[in-house]
Design goal:
This protein is mainly α. The protein has helices at residues 3-14, 37-53, 55-58, 61-70, 78-91, 96-106, 109-126, 132-159, 166-218, 243-259, 261-272, 277-305, 307-331, 335-362, 369-397, 405-430. The chain contains 16 helices and no strands. α2 crosses α9 (166-218), α7 (109-126) runs antiparallel to α8 and α9 (166-218) packs across α12 (277-305). Its main location: membrane.
């Protein structure tokens, strides 16, 4: 067993993140997780609701991209419109260190309540917006910032109740985001003809509000609260002196650059190739349906062959799926082919999301884990902020709006390149012994 493996196993036994009813000044005395119990499993359900409401909604960005391109923002380019969703994705990561420390100090409820209110309020304001800058402020910045707090609370609290079954618990939690990505496009497509787009957005806000009210009652932390550490670093770029962490972060940056393009543009591409409006929207649901097993099964494989080994394979296969399954659709429109690509891509992209943070944890030692997470999230936020606008700018440059080849190649090269860089990080950690579990 390597030192890094020992540190990660030690983390499972000593993890102490966010609060229970002890005073912040009391020392933290970690205990063995109860492997769920009624409170723990109810917490998992509540956390899954949180992921449904946040990442699940963001996984349906293609519905909004397509609508804005065809209607409210039709005089803007796809690249300009994509900044709305790029900001959402960026803000899902950038404030995470802040919300993590707030959770450590005050517990989940004081974070969940205001963030839930902000998300619902932002969507209600989106339903009143008719100008680009208004949508940027409401849907891009407001919802993105609130969703980050909800996401952090859900991801942290669920894992505190489990040790042996933590993978299963977190798999259920993250599957909530995929389920949201399945439900929201269908929900929007059914309602939009009945009540219009802006009425539909208000119904989405109502659904998220109901789920978050339930989540605020269900999500509970097990570990004692910590004092606010004024000396703790939010981001520490000296950590990039560690080659494994530097290479892994660079690889993940590249993968995230290309990851979201199919989510955002597959629907509009399908419309341009003669798909019905309903089927083009349901492609987004199919991507997210494929990601449900993709978020669970590769985690079990990673337990057997290693997280970095699995991650390297997944990233390269994700990029290759674009070249072999999505690019041919540009030259020969096939309903079956595009549906098959949506399911395969959903599975592989879901695997990347589920393995991303565990690989970050394994890229260094326990002593720098908190700073490493914060630094990694800051870099990923930049990737999310720039990836979709770059894809949109490439699409703009192709002129007709029908040729998506440049966008597809950019996404594929970014993900394959990212997978290769992550593979180099793996080699740096374990050498050329390919059978070694890393």
């Amino acid at each position: 067993m390597t030192l890094q493996d020992h540190n990660i196993e030690k983390l499972d036994d000593t993890e102490a993140s966010v609060g229970c009813n002890q005073h912040p000044s009391e020392p933290i005395t970690p205990t063995i997780p109860p492997e769920g119990g009624l409170t723990g499993w109810l917490c998992v359900i509540g956390c899954s609701m949180c992921m449904f409401s946040t990442f699940g909604f963001l996984n349906a960005i293609g519905v909004f991209q397509t609508y804005y391109q065809l209607h409210e923002l039709s005089h803007y380019t796809p690249s300009t419109i994509s900044w709305i969703f790029a900001l959402q994705l960026c803000l899902m990561w950038l404030p995470a260190p802040l919300f993590g420390r707030l959770l450590d100090t005050y517990g989940p409820t004081p974070v969940l309540i205001p963030c839930s209110v902000l998300c619902v309020f932002s969507l209600c304001m989106t339903s009143l917006c008719h100008k680009y800058y208004q949508i940027i402020l409401a849907q891009g910045i407001g919802f993105g910032f609130g969703a980050c707090g909800i996401f952090v609370a859900a991801f942290v609290c669920a894992g505190q109740w489990f040790e042996k079954r933590r993978g299963l618990a977190l798999g259920i939690v993250t599957a909530g985001s995929s389920l949201g990505g399945v439900i929201f496009p269908i929900f929007v497509n059914i309602l939009i003809d009945e009540v219009g787009f802006y009425g539909t957005v208000r119904y989405v806000a109502l659904l998220i509000g109901i789920l978050q009210v339930c989540a605020c009652f269900l999500v509970r932390a097990r570990m004692p609260r910590e004092k606010w550490n004024k000396e703790a670093k939010w981001v520490d770029f000296t950590l990039f002196k560690n080659p494994a962490f530097a290479l892994y972060t660079a690889g993940a940056f590249l993968v995230m650059w290309g990851l979201w393009a199919p989510f955002d543009y597959i629907s509009s591409m399908a419309l341009n190739h003669g798909f019905s409006n309903s089927l083009s929207i349901y492609l987004i649901s199919l991507i997210n349906a494929g990601s449900i097993p993709g978020r669970i099964l590769p985690g079990h494989l990673a337990d057997t062959i290693g997280y970095f080994n699995t991650m390297t394979i997944v990233c390269i296969l994700t990029g290759l799926s674009i070249i072999t399954l999505w690019v041919p659709f540009t030259y020969h429109s096939s309903h079956v082919g595009l549906i098959f690509f949506a399911v395969v891509y959903g599975f592989l992209s879901g695997a990347f999301i589920s393995l991303m943070m565990p690989c970050c944890a394994k890229s260094g030692t326990l002593q720098t884990l908190g700073q490493r997470f914060g630094t990694f999230q800051s870099v990923i936020a930049i990737s999310c902020l720039t990836g979709l606008p770059i894809s949109g700018a490439i699409l703009n440059g192709e002129g007709s709006g029908v040729g998506y080849l440049g966008l597809q190649i950019f996404s594929a090269v970014a993900m394959v390149g990212g997978g290769v860089v992550i593979g180099v990080a793996r080699m740096g950690m374990a050498g050329w012994e390919l059978g070694k579990r890393v």
